[in-house]
């Protein structure tokens, strides 16, 4: 008779303990998600308030330099400039 009384009590304790553990784990998970959401909102707010980076600047001379180097290469290919003259003109152009 003693064992009959204890089994329902043990079963109830086991079910209650399991339910408590599962509920506690779910609460921890919800808290972790809430903290993560708050961290994401903070990061988004920081990114939104930060000044946008300045636009990249074009290289000195830009497309004109490329066109000028192409023109110098053609002059050298056609024999109008020697290799030394081409090198000097190229250095002068790149030094700008």
Give the tags.
96 residues; mainly alpha; 2 domains; 79% helix; rod-shaped
Percent helix range:
over 70%
Q: What order do the helices and strands follow?
A: HHH
User: Number of helix segments?
Assistant: 3
Number of strands: 0
What's this model, at a glance?
79% of the residues lie in helices and 0% in strands.
Please, could you describe this protein's structure?
The protein has about 100 residues and is mainly alpha-helical. The chain folds into 2 domains: about 1-45; about 65-95. The protein is built from 3 helices and no strands. Helix 2 (about 65-75) packs antiparallel against helix 3. It is rod-shaped.
Fold topology:
Layout: H1 2-49, H2 63-77, H3 83-95
Helix pairs in contact: 2-3
């Amino acid at each position: 008779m003693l064992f009959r009384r204890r089994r329902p009590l043990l079963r109830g304790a086991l079910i209650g303990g399991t339910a408590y553990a599962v509920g506690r784990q779910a609460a921890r998970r919800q808290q972790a998600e809430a903290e993560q959401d708050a961290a994401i909102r903070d990061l988004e707010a920081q990114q939104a308030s930060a000044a946008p980076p300045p636009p990249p600047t074009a290289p000195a001379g830009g497309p004109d330099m490329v066109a000028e180097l192409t023109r110098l290469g053609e002059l050298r290919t056609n024999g109008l400039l020697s290799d030394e003259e081409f090198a000097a003109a190229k250095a002068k152009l790149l030094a700008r």
